[in-house]
Amino acid sequence: MSASGSENWRPRTRAVRTGSRRSQYGEVSEAIFLTQGFVYDTAEDAEARFREAGPDEFIYARYGNPTVAMFEERIAALEGAEDAFATASGMAAVNGALVSMLRAGDHVVSSRALFGSCLYILEEVLPRCGVEVTLVDGTDLDQWRAAIRPDTRAVFFESISNPTLEVIDIAAVCEMAHEAGATVIVDNVFSTPVYSRAIELGADVVVYSATKHIDGQGRCLGGVILGSREFIRKTVEPYLKHTGGALSPFNAWVMLKGLETLDLRVRAQTEAAQSIARALEGHPKLSRVIYPHLESHPQQELARRQMEGGGTLFSVEIAGGQAEAFRALNALEIFIISNNLGDAKSIVTHPATTTHQRLPDEQKAELGITPGLVRVSIGLEDARDLLDDLRRGLDAV
Ligand SMILES: *Cc1c(COP(=O)(O)O)cnc(C)c1O
C-alpha cells in the first residue's frame, strides 16, 4: 500500500488521483474495505498499534478504515487542508467540529441564517451543555464586531446560507474572530469544494455535508471536517472515534468516486442554475429571484470576489404565498419535490413547510423564509427542459 499525492497538482488532478491506497492486487478503482476490524500478527503488534497506529495501520472502523482514509486524504488535498476526519453525515460533522472543541462556559457567535439542524445544535444542544451562543445577522459586519468578545471560543456560519443564499464575508469575519483568538468553523456546503476558498480566506475549519454535491447522485449520507492536523487529530478525532460518528466504508467509497466527477458536475450545474435564474428574473408570477452571481443579488460583488461560480442553487419567491407555491410545485413534471440538494436530479423544496418547518413564524420572517419561497437545486438534466418545466409550474399559479 502506498499513498500517492503531489503538492503541485491542480485541483482536478487531486480530485481524481490523490489519496489512492492500492492493495497488492493493483486495482485501478479504489477498493471498498468493508471490514469493521483488523487482524494483528501477534499480541505484541496489537499492543503497539493501540499505543500508536502508523499511517497504514488500522484498529477498528469507528477509528478509521482504509477506504475512509482515501476519501479523507483526497478531499483534504482538494480543499487545501492539512487533514480531514470523515463523518456519518453532514450534521455529524457540524456537531463534531463544535462539540469536540467547546466546554461549558465558552461563548460562540454564529450567523442566524442556518440549515434547520445546524440551528438546533446552536440553539438547543450547545446551550444545554452550558455554552453561550449569540446569533447575528451574518451579512452585517457590525453585528459580528459587537458580538465577538475576548472569551469567544468559536465562530460558526454557512458561507452561503440555506435557503436564502445570503453571502458571508469570510475574510472579514475571520479577521475579527482571530483578533479575539476564536476558531472559525465554516459550513461550506453551498459553495462546494469546487468554488471554496474558505481556508485561503482565513477559515480554520471547514465542514461539508458530503450527502450533497460530493455524492451528487442522492445515494449516501456523509460528511467531513477539514482543518489543521493538530485540530483534526488532537481535538476532533478523540471525540468522534469514541462517540461513533464514523463514516461507513461503503459510503466513503461512493464519496471518493463522487470527488472524481465533482468539478465537472458542479460547473455544469452552476452554469445551468445561473442561466435559468437569469431567465426567470422579471417573471410576472415571481416577486424575487435570488442567485449570488446575479446583478440583482445585494451581495453580488462579495459573492463574485469570494466564489468563482455562483453555485448550483437559487431561490425564488412566488408572488402570493404558500397556496400559489404549492400549485407551482405540484405542476412540475421534471423537478422532483424533495429536500436534498446538489443532486444530478433537479429538486424543488418549500423550506417554510419542510426543512424550516419547526421554526416559529417570527423567526421564519426574520430569516426571509416566506410562504412563497421555493429553493431550487439544479441538476444535470438539459437546462432548456428545466426552464420549460419551471415556466409550466409558474403558469399553473
Ligand atoms: C444538508 C446540510 C447539512 C447537513 O448534512 P446531512 O448530510 O444531511 O447531515 C448541514 N449544513 C448544510 C448547509 C446543509 O445543506
Give a structural overview.
The chain is an alpha/beta fold and 397 residues long. The protein has two domains: 9-258, Aspartate Aminotransferase, domain 2; 263-395, Aspartate Aminotransferase, domain 1. The chain is built from 14 helices and twelve strands. Helix 1 (11-17) runs antiparallel to helix 3 (66-79).
Q: What amount of the residues lies in strands?
A: 5-15%
CATH homologous superfamily assignment of the largest domain: Type I PLP-dependent aspartate aminotransferase-like (Major domain)
CATH topology of the largest domain: the name is Aspartate Aminotransferase, domain 2
Distance between the termini: 59 Å
CATH architecture of the largest domain: 3-Layer(aba) Sandwich
Query: Could you estimate the helical fraction of the residues in percent?
Result: 40-55%
Class based on secondary structure composition and strand pairing: alpha/beta
Rg estimate, integer Å: 21 Å
How many structural domains are formed by the residues?
A: 2
Number of DSSP-assigned strands: 12
Give structural attributes.
globular; five-stranded mixed beta sheet; seven-stranded mixed beta sheet; alpha/beta; Aspartate Aminotransferase, domain 1; Aspartate Aminotransferase, domain 2; binds pyridoxal-5'-phosphate
